[in-house]
Structure prediction request, 385 residues.
Amino acid sequence: MESVIDQAFAAALYTEGDAGLDTGASLLAAAPRADAELARRGEEFVRRAWQRGWLPADVVRLVRRDLDEHAAGLAAGLIASEVRRYDELPPRWRSQLDELPSVPPANRPDRFSYASALLALYRLLLALPAIEPVGPPPGAAREALTRPPAAGEPRMLTRIRALLAKAEATGYPEEAEALTTKAQELMARHSIDEALLAARTHGDRTPGACRIGVDAPYETAKAILLDAVASANRCRAVWNSDLGFTTVVGFEADLEAVELLHTSLLVQGTAAMTRAEAGQRAGGRKRTKTFRQSFLMAYAQRLGSRLADGTARATAEAESDTAADTALLPVLAARDLAVTETAEQMFPRTTTTRVRGATDLDGWTHGTEAADRARMGGEAPGIRG
Prediction:
């Protein structure tokens, strides 16, 4: 059956256009005995993606964006099958695998349609470029796949997630503010304690990296918000607009804070934008796109300023409480330098892009007000020190 697959691949994967896909799908639809080998070839394409620096969430996100949800489900099936080969997986993989979309049934609605969808997916997987790795691939040496957790980390992260979930769910701004402020305080203490512990024990932990999806629409504003959160957590963020993600470089405790806080702020900001937009529509306004773009740009810019102020305050307060034998500022400066060096090694060539300005005054005003209500770095300590 290999020859049938080779013929189908030659027609569909190495030529452009739908005609090649149709030819390849017709060949596969007529050869049911080739199904097992077809799946095995798909797993090989997924394995190559790991070798090129991709993670499960990266693959699914790009497939969903460039193809559709059905193709994302097909990719999830290949990923789930491929990772069964490994006894252990790198950090972050387990949560990404748990969030894979449902796998559609094979050969539905018919063999031709199913084969055509698979070949379109394989064509995309084959063309994936190499990207900067943000962790070891599966199958690496055992010591590279494991990272001992910081003391109290699971319980701390559970409390932070619970607080942010409540902040997102409540309909009362004052309650959301109090919950988010408490989460900020826990993040700040957790991050500072991690830095001091590493300094006192001469720990050899080095900066790592993670990737966070930045999806359309309004991806520029979302990337700016993520950059603001990353900067406040002593991380560096590099946005790849073509592939739809931002790589965040930093120490593990800070990366976790960025992921949690960015997700929560985006949820809160989107909800606030929807409420403000409803008010605008009630007044007879129809410029929805410009309103949303300006809202999110203002929300991101205002939060960036408040986050930076909160970080400075939290650092000053933590330094006054730090034991005399460990000066906090030099510890943080050393970590900042390590993050910068790691980011520059990963991304030796980056470019700065001019951001198109906001054009809707009402959207900008409402976005600024929503950022103020989020109270990121108001009277309470900032998200980290």
